[in-house]
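Job type: complex structure
Entries:
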Amino acid sequence: MLRAGCRAALPRRPPGSEGLKQTPLDALHRARGGRMVPFAGWTLPLHYGQGHLQSHLHTRRHCSLFDVSHMLQTLVYGRDRVRFMESLVVGDIAELKPGQGTLTLLTNERGGIMDDLIVTNTSEDHLYVVSNAACADKDLAILRDRAAQLQATGSDVHLEVSDNALLALQGPSMARVLQAGLSDDLAKLSFMNSITTTVFGVPGCRVTRCGYTGEDGVEISVPAARAVELAEQLLGVPDVWLAGLAARDSLRLEAGLCLYGNDIDETVTPAEAGLMWTLGKRRRVAMDFPGAAVIMAQVKEKPRRRRVGLTSVGPAIRPHMAILGPEGRPVGTVTSGCPSPCLGKNIAMGYVEAAHSRAGTELTVEVRKKQHPAVITKMPFVPTQYYMAK
Amino acid sequence: MAWRALRRVGPVLAPRCPRLPRLPLPPREPAARRLGTSSLLLAARKFTDKHEWISVENGIGTVGISNFAQEALGDVVYCSLPEVGTKLSKHDEFGALESVKAASELYSPLSGEVTEINAALADNPGLVNKSCYKDGWLIKMTVANPAELDELMTEDAYEKYIKSIED
């Protein structure tokens, strides 16, 4: 692996004819009926022949394979890599055991969320960071600027953008499917933990037990040159279907997971977003993360608005719809929403004034000029299945 | 009689609809020449640029969405349809179809009054995808102004229209 910072400046993939980037699985998606759409500067499959609904349900009942290579994978090397990371995020990174990762947030000086990302303390000599494709340029600029600042004062930190493909295998059958290609015992790998190993004959893969569906699943970072080979091995198991962006979004919403850009963004603090659990115990006391003063003040005085879940029947609740309180006055806005394939009713996330944010509160949502009742509901909407080793 | 009936039925079988077989048909005359504005006995299916279709029989129009539209929309999970008796002007929004990923509004192809809505869709909204030209019909309505039918696209014109927007 090269240590040159300049590699990160090059486009990660040769662009397609429309200027969109292609993942290493592009031809595979097209060959298998993927309906390709532009997303965050990439061309990706929205769904395949079976359609969105069947794909979603298949993930919850069996197992689906998602190409998430568009996400940014960054490796952070150097003796001062933890200090570097903690200067940008809210989590206790120093406390992560070897192989352990955590969801955390990049914040700004106003306490706003710049991105949500997973930081893993690998057992090798680096941190492994996965962040959103839509924030890739922004995140890289933040990371590089801070690295340059620290290097200028003599700190030892280097960044490298990984060219690996990233495959997510999610669903109750995942462990059985994957174990057949691993010599490591998956029963020992808990949620949010990560190993480097050979998967179905492909060496140098990072397998992390995490995902964006609420199911037991893994994300496999695999060298680009062998990504198709690995995908085809996995797809050779009849239980495994390909799934695209459409199912990815409805699955994560059922699991109560935020989508950056919809449910969280720079105008929202972790307190308002209900993501205070990402703040490390030590960090809250030390107040040594960007926006700490704003965020901790909000925690003390209680945020004025809060992210909530909603359920309803009838026409679906969709982003930007107004949420109305008891007197018909707007008290909030929807940020995500869709009909839930598993529940047979509508689910949504949004922000409402704190006074109306308790679970069970009955509000109304304006859908195409008509008001429909909706109830504030605890999330996840569908129980999660994260795996903990005994 | 039968020959004429076949001719008129011809355009009803859209080549893109996956379920219906292609029957060998006699060459079609352009629909406009066969129909006077007063002929509402059995009219060829006509299309709007918003991908609704309407087919008029004995003065009642049956309305649905095209195969192009149902494919683009994805699996329909909920249909919002108007009440019987609703008076619609051409272009009025009369409802919406919800897929998991998005909602699509429906616009009235003609002016008229809603006489029936497809009750089967309440329990089986997927009919709109499986049978967009037959069992997945949405509403039936009277035709207040038959001249408006002439403003809609024939099936051939609609096929050309789809090709032009697909690029």
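Summary: Chain A has nine helices and 20 strands. The radius of gyration of chain A is 21 Å.
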